[in-house]
Design brief:
Structural class of chain A: alpha+beta
Strand order of the largest sheet of chain B: 1-2-10-7-8-9-13
Number of domains of chain B: 3
Largest sheet of chain B: 7 strands, mixed
Oligomer: heterodimer
CATH class of the largest domain in chain B: Alpha Beta
Strand content of chain B: 5-15%
Distance between the termini of chain A: 66 Å
Largest sheet of chain A: 4 strands, antiparallel, barrel
Number of helices of chain A: 2
Structural class of chain B: alpha/beta
CATH architecture of chain A: Roll
CATH topology of chain A: SH3 type barrels
């Protein structure tokens, strides 16, 4: 699937490469680049995921990066069942029902 | 380090001055000292002005709720005659769902008044949503810069939800991977756009929180006929505690004990890529609370207006399992479903209320909104996926980054006191060290007085510590 000019897309870029990072960051962080994600309307005529592109963000800034996602959606949710939460509920209800 | 990075960082002071419109050097009075009160007075707004500014955008005047069932639960686990009445300031009722709307309201008003076309804030927390919401109300452009993902592109569900919320208010959200160089991107954006730096730590931002302490005092007087005996404030960067305590003082509630509370994340490094997703709290924790209390001037402004050690009477920590447990309790027995991070002070208050007399009152001064991602279940589910051991037991056994231990019984919830003397000492040592980096430190009488005010101690105490180090 290709994105067309004006499509709402998500882009990715590297802000600082390994070796350019602040000397004070912990070792594990120093071993990875500083990455950035942003969203905007595609300015290129056409592009596929992985292409170098330019977008205009929602407030009108022009930003360059690699095309990551076309029409990006939110997928965070309420997670999986955590049975311990139900146990807390049952315990609290029982305690509240106990006579003083 | 790259040349772009260095060139931009060298222009830091110039960019910041342009983006915030405050000449902080005007308030410097000694080697260490600066005139905090004069800065608050000259750069901030009066309480009356702030109430007016906040009312323009529907901020503040949040309900004060008495948690009667929570008090009953406390009394079930407290010695006879003990168990203070617990009240809760429902700050989730603010337009963006948290007390941060108070901070943003004044900052955005100020930006608009000075003629800025847009605002930028660097935050992964509720403040981003607050700035975006207030900017929407006042018709300014908004960019929020977030530390969001680890190097595998995995993000805390809570932070992702906040990104969504910022977008919902029309903001551009620039997301970054883990690391303090977020400040570099933040500076780049300020330089590129000429927008206002809606920092969390400006005098007007902090003054915006004063209304919270003032309002809750008014409400407590109306409800109970007297001032709260204690107010518990979640402490991270120090602004919530500073603003609330100043509001209490302005309302004349000088006898109210101000207690800071942070989630214990001991041992986790905040700038570590691997540890980033091993914590379940992204704010209100000791990873911010301790460094900002022991040295507040580490933020995105030269002098932070959040100076919690000036106002703190007590500082406690609670564990992640305890805060999650109390979040669930708030929903189950009080019928109030709120976000976990905002309940840090609730968990602390539950424990502290047990030490207090039945006639006394304790106020939890905030709540925050909840929703997908930003909720006990997705956050615990995420922790479990990341290999965190979730179980019941004694919360004292919890190891941040390895386990989350729910109390086997609510009687095991225990706020643990941090040694304030040690924190004060650490503040003084940090100040001397920082000043020492610039050259020999010659302290004046004014500097000693300043350090005593900063640490809510005495010149004698300060002198003693200086001699020791």
């Amino acid at each position: 699937m290709k994105a067309k000019q004006g499509d709402w897309v998500r882009i990715h870029s590297i802000v600082l490469n390994v070796g350019e990072r602040n000397p004070q960051v912990p070792e594990d962080t120093a071993r990875v680049p500083l990455e950035m994600w942003d969203k905007g309307f595609l300015l290129n005529t056409e592009a596929a995921v992985g292409d170098a592109v330019e977008v205009e963000t929602i407030i009108g800034r022009k930003v360059k990066g690699t095309l990551l996602e076309i029409e990006p959606a939110w997928d965070h949710d309420f997670g999986r069942c955590v049975p311990e939460i139900i146990s807390i509920d049952r315990q609290l209800k029982a305690i509240m029902k106990e006579e003083a | 380090m790259g040349t772009d990075y260095k060139a931009l960082m060298d222009r830091k002071n110039e960019i910041m001055k342009k983006a915030i419109g405050i000449d902080y050097s005007a308030f410097e009075t000694g080697t260490l000292a600066f005139d905090f009160e004069r800065m608050m007075k000259e750069v901030g707004y009066t309480l009356k002005e702030i109430r007016e500014i906040q009312s323009q955008t529907g901020v503040g005047n949040t309900p004060l709720l008495e948690l009667r069932n929570m008090t009953r639960l406390v009394r079930k686990v407290a010695p006879a005659g003990k168990g203070a009445r617990i009240f809760l300031k429902d700050e989730a009722s603010n337009p963006s769902g948290s007390f941060k709307a108070r901070r943003a309201a004044t900052a955005i008003y100020h930006a608009q008044r000075l003629g800025y076309k847009g605002v930028i804030a660097a935050t992964s927390g509720n403040y981003g949503a607050a700035v975006a919401s207030q900017a929407a109300m006042r018709g300014l452009d908004c960019i929020i810069v977030q530390e969001c993902y680890d190097s595998k592109g995995k993000g805390q569900p809570e932070i992702i939800e906040k990104a969504r919320k910022c977008e919902a208010y029309g903001a551009e959200v620039v997301q970054l991977s883990v690391g303090p160089e977020l400040f570099f991107t933040f500076l780049q954006l300020l330089d590129e756009t000429g927008f206002f730096n809606a920092s969390l730590y400006t005098p007007f931002g902090i003054a915006g929180v004063e209304t919270l302490g003032y309002e809750l005092t008014e409400q407590m007087r109306e409800r109970t006929g007297k001032d709260a005996d204690a107010v518990v404030v979640t402490n991270a960067g120090g602004g919530n505690l500073t603003g609330t305590a100043r509001g209490l003082i302005k309302a004349g509630a000088e006898a109210t004990t101000v207690i800071g509370a942070s989630v214990n994340l001991k041992g986790l490094h905040m700038a570590s890529d691997k540890q980033f997703n091993r914590k379940s709290f992204t704010t209100g924790h000791t990873g911010f609370g301790i460094p900002f209390t022991t040295f507040p001037d580490r933020s995105d402004v030269p002098r932070s207006a959040g100076r919690p050690l000036r106002y703190m009477d007590r500082y406690v920590t609670v564990n992640q399992g305890e805060v999650f447990y109390m979040t669930e309790a708030l929903a189950q027995i009080e019928g109030l479903e709120r976000g976990p991070a905002g309940n840090t002070s609730l968990a602390a208050a539950f424990s502290i209320a047990r030490e207090m007399d039945e006639k006394q009152t304790i106020v939890v001064q905030e709540t925050e909104y909840t929703g997908a991602g930003k909720h006990i279940q997705p956050q615990l589910s995420f922790a479990r996926q990341n290999g965190i051991d979730i179980r019941f037991g004694d919360p004292a056994e919890e190891i941040p980054g390895e386990s989350i231990v729910f109390p086997e019984h609510p009687s095991l919830i225990k706020a643990r006191d941090l040694d304030l003397e040690k924190i004060r000492k650490s503040y003084i040592t940090n100040s001397l060290q920082r000043a020492g980096e610039k050259g020999p430190v010659n302290l004046t009488e004014g500097d000693l007085k300043y350090l005593a005010e900063e640490t809510k101690s005495s010149i004698d105490f300060v002198s003693k510590i200086i001699k020791e180090v």
